[in-house]
């Protein structure tokens, strides 16, 4: 379901005259308010240790529960992408990330609460020592280190994350 389909009444004046303006917005014919359904900002981290292993999470919640994932999540209002990335890493792994290096972005959509959520997933790389302490929390049901040579993109349940893993592994092989 498109996110605009959920909005039947104008959120400003309550009018039923809240109709499609274009593919990403609705406009109220009564008060003129226009609502845009723009993508949400989300982050994902390639956390690599000094032995060449990648930290992966097992999703604890839908969508794609029990599949592999990268630590990350939505950027909160008032945060930069880097701040959101550090916060999500801390919440899901317990790691206090230092430098987070932006790599690339991939558009994504998934169904949550019976609504399609459109996101722009921003991928970052984070380097840590092999002895860093990790603890699965928040959305991560479990964490594990995998040698990069053993990472299978097909085991990642979210489309954009899978595409990001493929892209990341491909770039690493080129180096």
Describe this structure in words.
With 175 residues, the chain is an alpha+beta fold. The protein has two helices and ten strands, in the order βββββββαβββα. The strands form two sheets. Strands 4, 5, 6, 7, 8, 9 and 10 form a seven-stranded mixed beta sheet that branches. It starts with 17 loop residues before the first strand and ends with a helix.
Q: What fraction of the residues are assigned to beta strands by DSSP?
A: 35-45%
Tally of extended strands?
10
Amino-to-carboxy terminus distance: 41 Å
Rg measurement, Å: 19 Å
Distinct helical segment count: 2
Which regions have little confidence, pLDDT < 50, spanning 5+ residues?
Answer: none
Class computed from helices, strands and strand pairing: alpha+beta
The whole-number mean of residue pLDDT values reads 94
Shape: elongated
Instruction: Give a quick account of the main beta sheet: strands, pairing sense, barrel closure.
Output: 7 strands, mixed
Task: Give the topology string: H per helix, E per strand.
Answer: EEEEEEEHEEEH
Write the layout of secondary structure elements.
Elements: E1 18-22, E2 25-28, E3 34-36, E4 40-49, E5 53-59, E6 68-69, E7 72-74, H1 81-93, E8 101-112, E9 115-128, E10 140-147, H2 159-174
Parallel strand pairs: 4-9
Antiparallel strand pairs: 1-2, 2-3, 4-5, 4-7, 5-6, 5-10, 8-9
Question: Brief description of this entry?
Answer:
The chain is of the alpha+beta class.
